[in-house]
Amino acid sequence: MNPPTSRPYRAAIIGTGGIARVHAKALKALAPRIELVAVADVDPDRARAFAAEFAVPSVHTDAAALLAGHGLDLVSICTPPQSHAPLAALAQRAGVVPLVEKPTTLNLRELDELRAVEEETGVPVLTVFQHRFGAAGRLLARLVAEGGLGRPQVATCETLWYRDDAYFGVPWRGRWDVEGGGPTMGHGIHQFDLLLAILGPWAEVTAFAARQSRPTDTEDVSLALARFENGALATVVNSVVSPRESSRLRFDFEFATVEVEHVYGYTTADWTFTPAPGHEELAALWQPDATGGTSGHGDQLAAILDAFDAGTPPEASLTQARRTLEFAAATYASAFRGRPIAAGEIGPDDPFAATMSGGMVPWAPLKEALV
Fold first, then answer.
1. 158 and 236: one domain?
2. Is pLDDT above 90 for 290?
């Protein structure tokens, strides 16, 4: 995309639920580089209230009309996961770059269909993986790429959150057909996306998943052991039944340990850098920008605008998102098949390409369990 010569970039939001407010605040904070010019929601009253709250001049109940009418450069898709793929494709065909809330799609098959539309239109699809873009996360990625920390050896990735039964009263939550999965898809995916961004391609996953206590069709806990192409080993835990909430990543390299603990977004102060004995000089490399705030949508949106300005592909592309979504699919496939799953093993005709459940969830459907 070439930068506009006489105006700011123009953005819109489809879906005006809770997460849309995060997008709107981030877009407003980036003015005058970008302006929020339109919103759409199937609920006209909610759309009008949202537009009034954020001083958005145009309101729609139809996504196609929004995409056709405002000379848009970017549209945030903040709807339930079931609608992500069709809305992203609609935006691509309208020539508007979609920024899609996680998960990008419900399954790998839908994501590959979006890649075909990308090849057809030349319009990329971007996914909200904001933890990649915080200052400390960016610095760690650079240090790893430069090799100064030595080979990655061991990592731990934990998303231990708490969601009560009432949280799942929203009709689309906790359902394979609408949300795609449980905390592996909707909660922990941010953390293990950052894990994958740092460690690179994964090679094999062995996993467990269970529905411990929540009123869902999906899992409420999953645990995975992953082996990476570079030889690193990692554990990944995703939970919504953990009363003391914590999000934690720890990377043990040959010459240093780097770790972060937060809940929904990290600051530079949340990170710890510990050089190995004999490598104390490496501490001087750990100088992340301490002036930024909490890692969030604003960091990613600013990076997208920088890429637009430079005419380069933005990060969190479909290729990167597919690696993350395939990790989620492999977690489910391993848990339900009871064996390791190799990267690339889930082909287009595999049941786990069509749905994260693979049609073989070991526990009873919710309606049967509650009888």
1. yes
2. no
